[in-house]
Amino acid sequence: MASGLRMIVGPMFSGKTTELLRILRKYAIAGYAVVLVKPSTDARYSASKVVSHDGLEMDALVVEPSFTGLARVAELLFEHDVVGIDEFQFFEYSPDLVKFLLNLSSEKLVIVAALNLDFRGEPWEVVKELLPYAEDVKVLKAVCTYVDQQRRKCGKQASRTQRLIDGRPAPYDSPRIMVGGKESYEARCRKHHVVPGRRD
Ligand code: ADP
Ligand code: MG
What we know:
The chain has 200 residues and is of the alpha/beta class.
């Protein structure tokens, strides 16, 4: 069985969860023991399932998003061949967490899906710290859904996540973690990613 670390990054709606579930299903069908982990931060749709924006779903092990949370289920993780982690950006960064995942992925295939940037367009530290160790990084893009005054759609590749509060761009000082779906987030290209109050 292959081991190593694979990462899937991109903005919201770029298909990270879909891709993660697709890979995990392939291994499950091929007869490997597969486990999917998600942080307790993300209670969208279901507490114990990972669900994509298209409605694909898979049972998940919910853990506290920290080294301690993962360490608590270490034994179980090491009993599987393939370990998927969704919404990895919500894990609290610590060198121990990175060490733990490097150790796990030296024996098992670990596939991590994460936002690379937050709504401000700034990196999530835990993702930034793990990324260089990945043997394989897939950078996914969504489609920019910005519509101008003349109702023309942008349609370029979207690499950013726009947070909206009551339909308006969220200010820079809005809290970093705000779990939500289509009502509060849109995929945007760089040009149409707006963060009022950001110093560029
Ligand atoms: P992620 O985990 O990256 O947020 P998902 O895998 O849950 O993404 O969902 C991807 C799906 O989101 C796409 O297959 C598509 O059906 C839907 N979607 C919604 N908005 C967009 C968009 N702006 N660009 C691309 N796909 C979108
Ligand atoms: Mg997702």
